Amino acid sequence: MLYDDTIILLFAKAPIAGSVNTRLIPDIGVEKATDLQENLIHQRLSMLTEAQVCDVVLMCTPDTQHDCFTECRQKYEVTLSVQSGSDLGWRMYNAAKEVLQSYQHCILIGTDAPALDEELIEQAIEVLHADTEVVIVPAEDGGYVLLGMQHAHTFLFEDIDWGSAAVMQQSRKKLETNNISFRELATCWDVDRLEDYQRYLAM
Hints:
The chain is an alpha/beta fold. It has helices at residues 25-28, 30-51, 67-76, 88-99, 118-129, 167-177, 194-201; strands at 6-13, 55-61, 79-82, 105-110, 134-138, 144-149, 182-184. A 7-stranded mixed beta sheet has the order 3-2-1-4-6-5-7, sandwiched between helices.
């Protein structure tokens, strides 16, 4: 591993029909939306494990028992853990707080940003090693696709309109208000709309 003091938490929903990529279902249908989720999970884990950048944990919801997760554990030799919390913010906070007891740096990512590559992830880790407290990769839609930190600041995970175009701006304001040093890297796209799905298919 390049960075034995850093861990990546990959947050993933089980590819259960009708519960994933719901914004895309009207355009591509339930079956393709479900297949997309499974493909994205495998694509992310394949990239991360081949890169050997740092330890990786697959943060699963609703549990670790789905066939896709079982296959991932066997194929990529990745650790599985269950997401715990009342909403996305608290699930991320709880996971980050726990792993930062054993690691100096923690990177949180989701499965829906296939353009978030090894180079950008390594750049984020280097920012944290340069003593910047928080690093973020903004998303084109106003959210973010990567959040890295040295400490799990509660304020970063509460009172955020998750899934909205305001996430990045709200997070930025909280960091500035609390005088936390942070750096934003190059904006990245995620798979949220039909045009994003078409961009993904063209990769």
